[in-house]
Amino acid sequence: MSDDIVLETRGLTKHYGGVHALNDANFALKKGEHVAIMGDNGAGKSTFVRQITGVEQRTRGDIMFYGEPVHFGGPLDAREAGIETVFQTLALADDLDVPDNLFLGREKTKFDWLGPFRLLDYKAMRQATMDGLEKTAVKIPNIRNTIRNMSGGQRQCVAIARTATFHSRLTIMDEPTAALGVQETAQVENIIRTLKDQGEPLILVSHNMRQVFDLVDRIVVFRRGRICANLAKEDTDGQDVVAYITGAKTQEGYEDAA
Amino acid sequence: MADASHGTGGLTFDSKRRAWPNELNIFFALILIIFAFEAAGQLLPYMNGQSFLFDTRDRFDSIFNEARLRIIILQVAIIGIIALGVTQVIISGGIDLSSGPLVGATAMIVMSFAQTELVNGGPNPKAVFGPWAFDLPVIVPLIVGLSFGALIGAINGSLIAYTKIPPFIATLGMFLICRGIAQAWTRGQPVSFPTEAYAVIGKGMMPVYLFFALAILFHFILKYTVYGKHTYAIGSNEDAARMSGINVQRHKVLVYMIASMLAAFAAIVLSSKNLTAQSGMGIFYELYAIAMAVIGGVSLTGGRGSIIGTVLGAMVFGVIQSGFTYIKLDAFYQLMAMGAIIIGAVVLDKVRQERAALRS
């Protein structure tokens, strides 16, 4: 395989008992590429993401990350390997502020010999947070504010800013704007464009056709647990994608999905 | 700001701007309560214009009624030490009902290792063990007591973290077990006559000094260490904490261990102060400690609160208790009024939360 592949899955399969949630998914993401995953509810999009990020253990198949086969025991393994995920349900602690949330579980510390009582290096974490927010052009009025006092868009921005702060090698967003208003959605989309400008690879799970065509290079369509189309943005349009999603069309080479 | 071409809105950073600290509200409430009792003293006909906290007769030594201040602060110091641990448990999203009976059990056990041989020239009439346990160095009962606390806390924490039973149930069970241990230890007999060194721990104003020293220590730990940050994180959103890679189960065990060790230390101070241990010691202490934390703004849903708040809550608690006595409110009504105040504090907290939610 070529060197410019960030993530590749071969025959990725997940069964929940008798339910075949994901079957033989062959997927590849190139460096600097933004790919959208689309499909109806229950088509296997989130299942696919959960296998890659180690939230669940796959039934079968291979995952290659930068050419190396990987087996993530949990989400933390994936994160340590450089995969940052923005989940549908935000993994933020409401009563903590922005730097606390960005660094939760991997705090910058001093006097490490104190074990669990080692001191937090607030200054370094604040600085790194500011740098990360600048890199993504995320604007938050006051990083010392607790998450509880933030709007949905700001919360989503904080979750996304984690990506930039930790120099992730792959960013996955699972419906990042599903619960957001128009302005907030625009803000999140702008961050995604910033990531694109910086050449950060991204997998975006979304239902929003306009958003997908605005942001990504390629669209992969899931249907009933299988990939049924892999479309370059230039070669397709909204109606075409809907036809694939609903099952009116199946791309050549993906006939088993029919 | 770097490339801001994709940015929206005109928001700017202001790392200095901070929210109005809740502790200030509690402090003002404390002042208000003091003045309310002061006013009651002036207005109630049977009080003869006595002052609550200010010295009205002798203005030369001090403007305060120091005797009453000292009693207030001594009254809350020992339960306050327990409240420091309960605060951490509640911030982590749990509750600890076992601290009161733990005080009783620990006091009984610890005092057995702190007894002196000769009482008024004769043998110690309350001896629990043989001669080997007499006049041990003071470090022995201290280690025994703190180890017992750590053990109980580890059991509490492990039950809650690993079997996932609700903290309320786990610590309620431990409540009964500890009270049972306290009674079974000497079959109800008090344990008395400690060594001189042991008697120093709770002598005079020592409980107050210890309370404040521990409060400062744990204020620092909660605010500036990884332990503190993870305690808030777990109480705030346990799933997020787990997804962030925090070992939630191990951390919970640690929190309950620290809380129980603080309760055990309170038992040491109390038994030293009283020069005796009785199986009934610490009755209602768990509830008073929880009340202090709650009055001090520690949220029962977890994630919010502080040691400063709890210390202020303890002060409010002490002032109210002392104030009721001062206006000669019958002890029977005092309990009822106290209950009403605790409920009021939680309702106020709820209202404040909802207002904050509306603002954002």
The secondary structure category of chain B is mainly alpha
The overall strand count of chain B is 4
Q: What is the arithmetic mean of pLDDT of chain A?
A: 87
Specify the CATH architecture of chain A.
3-Layer(aba) Sandwich
Q: What distance separates the N and C termini of chain B?
A: 25 Å
Please, could you describe this protein's structure?
The complex is a heterodimer of chains A (258) and B (360). Chain A contains eight helices and twelve strands. In chain A, the strands form three sheets. Chain A has a six-stranded mixed beta sheet with strand order 6-9-10-3-11-12, with helices on both faces. A four-stranded antiparallel beta sheet of chain A has the order 2-1-4-5, with helices on one face. In chain A, helix 6 links the parallel strand 9 (170-174) and strand 10. The two termini of chain A are 28 Å apart. Chain A has a single domain, classed as Rossmann fold, CATH 3.40.50.300. Chain A has helices at residues 45-52, 75-81, 98-102, 122-136, 152-165, 182-197, 209-215, 238-246, and strands spanning 5-16, 19-30, 34-39, 60-65, 68-69, 83-86, 109-110, 119-120, 170-174, 202-205, 218-223, 226-232. The model of chain A has no long low-confidence stretch (mean pLDDT 87). Chain A is of the alpha/beta class and 258 residues long. Chain B has one domain (62-359). Chain B is built from 13 helices and four strands. In chain B, the strands form two sheets. A two-stranded antiparallel ribbon of chain B has the order 1-2. In chain B, a hairpin with a 2-residue loop joins strand 1 and strand 2 (122-123). In chain B, helix 2 (66-91) crosses helix 12 (307-326). The radius of gyration of chain B is 23 Å and the shape is globular. The interface between A and B is large, with 51 and 44 residues.
